[in-house]
Design goal:
The chain is an alpha/beta fold and about 270 residues long. Helix content is about 35%, strand content about 15%. It is globular and about 50 Å long. It starts with 19 loop residues before the first strand and ends with a helix. The mean pLDDT is about 100. Bound molecules: phosphoenolpyruvate (PEP) and manganese (II) ion. The site of phosphoenolpyruvate has 10 residues, from loops.
Length: about 270
């Protein structure tokens, strides 16, 4: 049975959890994604050393932005094609598959061998981009917009799926509320709610959701308890000098301690 409005994302359309395979890693249906890495790719040394450290700690996917959607046009915009090149080097060195943000469909040829294409919060309703990513058939990590509902998030997933691509991972990354203590408000109830609404994997990004490194580990654990299929966490070897999002980036040793707790918590919840 298909829903008139939501045709592909619902449990009616696909009762079982969807498991997405990307670069040899599975996500969903009990397969947990530990995505970690810097906000932005900065140098070869930086990305390779962080990749090695997070892999050792238990990460199974490397993140790093090469195309950065910045609020200010004067802020660092990312290394673009050079950043993708450095990500490939880190993948070669560690074997970790890559997730990195694509901002424009025109850049798709450059992302040919990227394992997972990220659609950032600000592009969640860039419908032309979503359609092209649907046609690309590549795994997509779709982040919830800053001020978007869960129905709107699922409609954006429908755009990708309606264009022939079932490989969509959803990501809760915090939303705008009246609360101004932290960067955003992590809507953790979205996780069990989406679990009911859709068969697609749901991961949580506590880094952008909080904007503050010391708040990231407890919220990561809360996300695991809420039933997330994975975590995306910003890790930097020198957060004070990070070109972007240093305040929310945890250090490799903090990531290692967190990964250990995540493992224990998942064990306890089994
Ligand atoms: C990111 O993950 O690098 C990012 C820019 O996040 P968001 O789109 O959630 O702000
Ligand atoms: Mn960031």
């Amino acid at each position: 049975m298909t829903n008139e409005v939501f045709r592909k994302t619902t449990r009616e359309a696909h009762p079982d959890d969807t498991v997405i395979e990307a670069g040899g890693v599975r996500i969903g249906g009990g397969h947990f994604a530990m995505i970690a890495g810097p906000c932005s790719v900065e140098t070869e040394d930086q990305i390779v050393s962080i990749a090695r450290a997070v892999k050792k700690a238990g990460a199974n996917i490397l993140r790093g932005g090469a195309y950065k959607p910045r609020t200010s046009p004067y802020a660092f915009q990312g290394l673009h094609a050079k950043g993708l090149e450095l990500l490939r080097i880190a993948r070669r060195e560690t074997g970790l598959p890559l997730v990195t943000e694509i901002m424009s469909a025109a850049d798709l040829p450059l992302f040919e061998d990227i394992d997972i294409l990220q659609v950032g919060a600000r592009n969640m309703q860039n419908f032309d981009l979503l359609k092209e990513l649907g046609r690309s058939g590549k795994p997509v990590l779709l982040k919830r917009g800053l001020a978007n509902t869960l129905n709107e998030l699922l409609m954006s997933a429908e755009y990708i799926m309606a264009n022939g691509n079932d490989r969509v991972i959803l990501c809760e990354r915090g939303i705008r509320t009246f609360s101004d203590t932290l960067r955003n408000t992590l809507d953790l109830s979205a996780v069990p709610m989406l679990r009911e609404m859709t068969h697609l994997p749901v991961i949580v990004d506590p880094s952008h959701a909080t904007g503050l490194a010391r708040i990231v580990p407890p919220m990561a654990l809360a996300a695991v308890a809420a039933g997330a299929d994975g975590l995306m966490i910003e890790v930097h070897n020198d957060p004070e000098h990070a070109l972007t999002d240093g305040a929310e980036s945890i250090r490799p040793e903090e990531y290692e301690a967190l990964a250990e707790k995540v493992e224990k918590l998942r064990e306890a919840l089994r």
